[in-house]
Amino acid sequence: MPRVVSLFFPAWPTDRLRRAMGQSAPSAESPIVMLGRQGNRRLVLAVDAAARAAGLRVGIPGSKAQVLVPNLQSFDLDAAGDAAALDRMALWSLRYAPIVAADPPHGLIIDTTGADHLHGGEEMMLEGLVSRMAASGIEARAAVADTWGAAHACARFLARPTFVAPVEGSSAIMLGLPIVALRLPHDIVHGLQTLGFERVGEVDAAPRASLSLRFGHELGRRLDQAMGRRSEPFEPVRSPDLIEVRRAFGEPIGAAETIARYAGKLVAALCEALETRGLGARRLDLLFHRVDNRIEAIRVGTAVPVRDVKRLTRLLTDRIETVDPGFGIELMTLTATLAEPFGAKQIISSLVEEPEPDITDLIDTLTNRIGEQRLYRFAPLESDVPERSIRRIAPTAPDDGTSWPGEWPRPPRLLTHPEPIETMALLPDHPPVWFSWRGIRRRVTRADGPERVFGEWWRRDAEVIAVRDYFQVEDEAGDRFWIYRAGDGEDPETGSHKWFLHGVFA
Fold it and tell me: Residue 207, exposed/middle/buried by CB under 10 A (0-12, 13-18, 19+)?
């Protein structure tokens, strides 16, 4: 089932203006409007969040806006600049999916079919999109649905700031939305409202012939596109700087073996183009243009720059089974949407020393199957608090030389969250005589500690005097555990004096 993301920027012109002005931009509390001419009138064409909070809306005269908000700052709308910046934003969004296009004037459209698992699922993907925009000073809302029209409507009327429509549930959601959600011209919307229509469901239930006779075929087309009864293809954005090869077919193809054969030929041609520029591919997008104007896509990534034909071909052909050729594919396009300098690697003779094993091929295979965020390794982080002393890094990230302190050994398995245990211990410095964890009572035969860990006072006030006393204990079966008491055993302000199990030794 196709899944489409709509990214909506409610204050795109004003947010772009603030980014362009940099340090000289007005504060977020200062209302800003963008003005432009419609005929002989000078109207407000864009407002930011502060201006909306002050009661200003798009379409009111600029002079009236100045009267309503005395400290209002106004600027001329740059529609061409906004459109060009939206295209650049679409190119940036190619990191999320191979099929992205601008949805002017204030949005993007992203076909994420089969790509959401690479970003932790649809909900996490939308949250990541919105949070990245917010970090750049751009207000954004995002929604995912089965069709472009439904995603467009949900992003503007339901997303707060994100919304995930159930698979095959977009039609039911659309029925309850206002008719302005159908992307219709203003005169058609006004005419429907004059007739008493308010919701999409009311229009969908009305006789189609009479509505088409009065308003033309645009109403029915937009309604069918939103409901998924008619396809709505869009041309993905592409930069002239991207390295791309394509193959058109006189007769449409559809067999998996044929697709795989031509994919290999495209990879060979792309690797030749990469070699002439001294680059290696980090991300490849293979697009399949079907005869019904729909585009299927495969995306693969690599841990390091690669231009090995067999390796890249295998990564692509492993995912051909996810492609629906429909009635046939008439064009295949392979693009290196991310390429980096390809550094030559010296091969050390086995007569001197054994070469280091190259596991990047395995990393690429696993990453493209389960997602980049699910494949990682742990690295040390400077912190005395155990759960804060590790961080996730990419499998091929270089070693920065940091390590965990070696005074006290740390368990190889650290629980996600410390789990409470029942104990009997002599306070303040003695380890427990026994403890009960997950319903099993264990008698302690050996123990070492305490190791006192202090809170990080610069993070929050509650950690100024907070401490933990850690013990390494061994039970009768020889199993070893890492437990701690919250507090110093004497002062109740240093902790609750409850016991927790935090790790298990091998």
Answer: exposed
Phi, psi of 149, rounded to the nearest 5 degrees: -60, -40
Give the pLDDT of the chain (506 residues) as one tens digit per residue: 789 999 999 999 999 999 988 888 888 888 999 999 888 889 999 999 899 999 999 989 998 999 999 889 999 999 999 999 999 999 999 888 899 999 999 999 999 987 777 787 899 999 999 999 999 999 999 999 999 999 999 999 999 999 999 999 999 999 999 999 999 999 999 999 999 999 999 999 999 999 999 999 999 999 999 999 988 888 888 888 889 999 999 999 999 999 999 999 999 999 999 999 999 999 999 999 999 888 999 999 898 899 999 999 999 999 898 899 999 999 999 999 999 998 766 555 555 556 667 788 888 888 888 777 778 888 888 887 888 888 888 888 777 777 766 667 788 888 888 999 999 988 888 899 999 999 899 999 999 989 898 988 888 887 888 899 999 999 999 999 999 999 988 888 888 899 999 999 97
The CB density around residue 296, as the number of other CB atoms within 10 Å, is: 22
Domain edges within the chain:
1-237, 243-341, 413-504
**Closest by CA position to 144, among listed 119, 134, 395, 136:** 119
Distance CA 424, CA 315 (A): 56
CA distance 437 to 434: 10
Parallel, antiparallel or unpaired: strands 141-145 and 4-8 = antiparallel
Cα(40)–Cα(62) distance, rounded to whole angstroms? 12
Contacts of 405 (CB under 8 A, 6+ apart): none
Cα-based torsion angle of the residue sequence 403, 409, 415, 418 in order, rounded to the nearest 10 degrees: -110
Residue pair 199/175 in contact by the 8 Å Cβ criterion: yes
SS (H, E, C) 221-260: HHHHHHHCCCCCCCCCCCCCCCEEEEEEEEEEECCHHHHH
For 1-237, CATH gives 3.30.70.270
Distance CA 45, CA 4 (A): 28
What element of type H or E holds 361? Answer: helix 360-370
CATH number of the domain located at residue range(s) 243-341 in this protein: 3.30.1490.100
Residues 6+ apart with CB under 8 A from 87: 102, 237
Between the CA atoms of 20, 21, 26 and 30, what dihedral angle is there, to the nearest 10 degrees? -30
Cα four-point dihedral sign 463, 466, 470, 475? negative
Q: pTM for the whole thing?
A: 0.73
Structure tokens at 417: 């969250």
- Any residues with CB less than 8 A from the CB of 107 and at least 6 apart, and which? 6, 7, 8, 9, 86, 152, 155
